[in-house]
Design goal:
three-stranded mixed beta sheet, Glyco_hydro_38_cen_sf, Rossmann fold, Glyco_hydro/deAcase_b/a-brl, glycosidase, alpha-mannosidase activity, hydrolase, Substrate Binding Domain Of Dnak, Chain:A, Domain 2, 276 residues, mainly alpha
Length: 276
């Protein structure tokens, strides 16, 4: 990476405007070193907009920041300093219309790419619950979209809330399990709530889709034109069964209807011959 602002391209080809913090998220923490921080950050900036993060882990905003900004703007008339949110910074980058460098792949240092690429934790349930919730959210979105195309209301607020909770759990100090036990009581509640709400949302979409499927008619047991057997054509009703595929590729399912066939749904006057 040669610049702090770039387009990051994912494995699926999707892209997102990204900012790399050359000095970490404490670049503006020391208010008496803003000159040096600005000089260092300016070397990497892709535009005239420079992000100078101010703060540290679990640290409240410094009361001295507003005055430090006013002092800077007084002594640097050609370089305006603003207190903004990350969203406002990215909006400013987009408004420049600059063609940013495109970066692909994992953003690991080449020398450290194989050293602890993931996190080992004794709280395995956090990672497992997180992955389970991610899978439920993906399925809920997929089938909510299909149901919406068929006329259902899209559960925008429910899925938006789910995304916020998923991203909260994915925070590097949470999903890694590196805190004390008391911290994760809230995470357990969030995961439990996510599973219940996403399962409910998914079931609603599946029920709506199933309601749009024509399951009428009867099943014909293909004995017609079979010279080996002199049996009448057999038609019999079955309770409809719908199998929905959540994978992004075609799958072949074998549905076991033995319970249907053995419960008197087929006339006992006939035998069923399969694969003759």
């Amino acid at each position: 990476i040669t610049q702090s602002d770039f387009i990051w391209k994912g494995l699926d080809g999707s892209t997102i405007l990204t900012h790399w913090m050359p000095l970490g998220y404490r670049a503006g923490l020391n208010l008496d070193r803003l000159e040096q921080s600005f000089s260092d950050l300016d070397k990497y900036a892709a535009t005239s907009h420079i992000l100078m993060p101010c703060g540290s882990g679990s640290m409240p905003p410094q009361a001295e920041i507003p005055q430090a900004v006013r002092d800077w703007n007084t002594t640097h008339p050609g370089i305006e300093m603003k207190i903004v949110t990350p969203k406002e910074f990215f909006q400013a980058l987009e408004q420049t219309k600059k063609k940013f460098e495109v970066v692909e792949g994992e953003l690991y240092d080449n020398e450290l790419v194989d050293v602890f690429p993931q996190v080992c934790t004794s709280r395995l349930w956090i990672v497992q619950s997180s992955r389970e919730c991610e899978g439920l959210l993906m399925a809920a979105e997929e089938f909510a979209t299909i149901a919406w195309l068929l006329g259902a209301d899209y559960p925008t607020s429910e899925l938006h809330e789910a995304w916020e909770n998923i991203l909260f759990i994915a925070f590097h100090d949470i999903v890694t399990g590196c805190g004390v036990d008391e911290i994760y009581e809230e995470v357990k509640e969030i995961c439990s709530s996510l599973k219940a709400k996403l399962t409910h949302s998914l079931n609603q979409s599946l029920s709506y889709i199933a309601g749009k499927v024509d399951t009428g008619g009867e099943v014909f047991c293909g004995l017609r034109n079979n010279p080996k057997l002199c049996l009448p054509e057999i038609y019999f009703p079955l309770h409809p069964r719908i199998k929905l595929n959540t994978e992004p590729y075609v799958r072949i399912f074998i549905l076991n209807l033995s319970d249907e066939l053995n419960s008197g749904k087929v006339s006992e006057n006939y035998n069923l011959f399969m694969d003759i």
